[in-house]
């Protein structure tokens, strides 16, 4: 469903991605593992049209994404939930969520139905929908960020470090929500440093280092790999 072929991305003289080739099939939950600066966020920015490739191809189904505007890519069905949440802290939770539905503004009834699903998934957001997003806890803000992405009606959802900076119990809640989103039919590409928890919910995984894919496999194989355990799990 999503395929990158030879994706190469530069920031000036710095090469952030070097010939990345990977794919996510329809219905999969695929994890992208890597340390800070490995290239996970750069790959996501390239896929979502926020950074222009130097070379290579990114396709969603039969559509080439490279060169398309981010708003067009969202309309095509690919939505990016960025690292650090990127909410509008002075706006209400409700307004933050509804911003995710902007590309579907001609279908307010459809957006209303999806908003109800978001509230069912994250009941605390219904309770706090009229509060400013900046007044919420970190975990609640991450729920808003995921909910806003869902309002874009993704066929493919990119989630960049959704557990970053959260308490262990909240990490468990957030990743359980990610698994539920996938099981409901949304294809997910998840970037995570919390390797153990991420691999427990994934169908497949890639490891990226210095802008290159260095390993691919099923979660059990990667969890059993001594190099992966030492580098990402600490065991």
TrEMBL record:
SMART domains: AAA. InterPro entries: AAA+_ATPase, ABC_transporter-like_ATP-bd, ABC_transporter-like_CS, BCAA_Transport_ATP-bd_LivF, P-loop_NTPase. It holds the Pfam family ABC_tran. GO terms for biological process: L-amino acid transport. Residues 2-235 form the ABC transporter domain. GO terms for molecular function: ATP binding; ATP hydrolysis activity; branched-chain amino acid transmembrane transporter activity. Keywords: Amino-acid transport, ATP-binding, Nucleotide-binding, Transport. CDD domains: ABC_TM1139_LivF_branched. Belongs to the ABC transporter superfamily. This is ABC transporter ATP-binding protein. It comes from Enterovirga aerilata.
